[in-house]
Amino acid sequence: MAGRRNSVGKELAAALSGSHDLVAAAGDLAKGNLSGARSTSSNAGGSETVVEMMERLNLTAKEADPLVFDDEGDDDLHGPDCALMGKVLAPNTLHINTIRVVVRPAWGNPKGLVVNHMGPNLFMAEFGSEEDRSRVAKGGPWKLRNHAILLKNFDVNIEPEVVVFDELPVWARLMKLGYELMNSKRGEPLAAKVGKVEKLDVDENGKAWGSFLRARVIIIPMEPIMRYVTVFSVKRNMIVQYEVMYERLPMHCFTCGLLGHSSVVCPTPAVRDADGKLPYHGDKLCVPERKKGPVLSQEHSQAGKSVKNGTEFGSGSQTSTHVPSEARTTQNSGEVSSPLKKKPRARRASLAKKKDKSGPGAAANAHAISPSKLGQKRK
Question: How far apart are the C-alpha atoms of 47 and 25, rounded to whole Å?
């Protein structure tokens, strides 16, 4: 009921805007003069629907009495110059502090950033400079706990609840294209099948190299993710499907391919394949992300390393590389320490341990001569 009243109220506000006659009609309706309201609204352009909308709200006389604002001179009203509207595409409502502590470091802690609550999972981010605002708007995809963060330019004339977040920039990979398609001339129409193309990852000659063509595209979050791009080759007279994979793709439903919810709560369950996987499984769509951890190969740990007390630490990283004792080298010499060779400190500890076991009189007893041997010597 409250939602219906809200929608009718918005329709009424739009119909009454900019018309003094319609405001007068609302006043007549508030006084109970229904015939006068209908007559006034008809003179204002034949809108009996305005009165009907007010009747549908079932307002009291006090509620229907309008407060008139002289807002004709508010054309210069504008919001913040460097601001973005944001929405976290999550099934549960997140606290604004949770959003703040995630977006600030993710966006590089820009100077002057202020994040304010605008509604359930809605926020406005004000930036100190246009450069930071543009950088964040063109970056991404931004994520919060793997939920997509959708951004839109702030408009003071649009209510936050009715803003349509219909864009998400991502990097897509068109997999296993032939050599004749690995260029901007053929690759851009292919990438346009996935979404609006912002950029192609090609060289100065417009060619791409490798096993895939990388493209920056804008996808629509309300539509299923594209898994394949279908091409009909006139030369070969055949139809070919090319797989599409995405870098840093936010959480999506493995069943229907939409962003914002998981397959566990999807209203349209799907049939699994022979391997037990759903149609939009992450193995098929998501490029594996590199996991941060210790470097296993000693060859990959040479760049940016510093030696401290015989242990290597990666500069700028919180992970350290463990070097086996068999291959550990000293800083001042090229000798390789053997695991079988005891260190001086260990050798001294071993000797002291043996001495403790022998007891205090062991040294004197070692030089003592037994009585039998002493009698043999006297003879």
Answer: 10
- Given a contact cutoff of 8 angstroms between Cβ atoms, the answer to whether 258 and 284 are in contact is no
State the chain's mean pLDDT as an integer: 74
**Predicted structure pTM score:** 0.60
CA 208 – CA 215 distance, rounded (Å): 10
Other beta carbons within 10 angstroms of residue 269's beta carbon come to 11
Residue 365: phi and psi, rounded to 5, are -65, -25
Cis preceding linkage at 141, omega within 30: yes
- The pLDDT tens digits for 129-165 are 999 999 999 888 999 989 999 999 888 878 888 888 9
If residue 84 lies in a helix (H) or strand (E), which one and from where to where? strand 83-89
CA 251 from chain center: how many Å? 9
Distance (Å, rounded) from C-alpha 187 to C-alpha 184? 5
H-assigned helices in the chain: 2-16, 20-30, 34-43, 48-57, 61-64, 96-106, 130-138, 184-192, 282-285, 344-358, 362-367, 371-378
Check pLDDT > 70 for residue 373: no
pLDDT tens digits, one per residue of 305-344: 333 333 333 333 333 344 443 443 444 444 444 445 555 6
Helix axes 20-30, 2-16, angle to 10 degrees: 140
Structure tokens at 83: 């601001």
Alpha-carbon distance 176 to 167, whole Å? 27
Under a CB-based contact definition with an 8 Å cutoff, are residues 151 and 218 in contact?
A: no
Per the CB < 8 A criterion, the answer to whether 301 and 324 are in contact is no
pLDDT of residue 317: 35
Q: What percent of the chain has pLDDT over 70?
A: 59
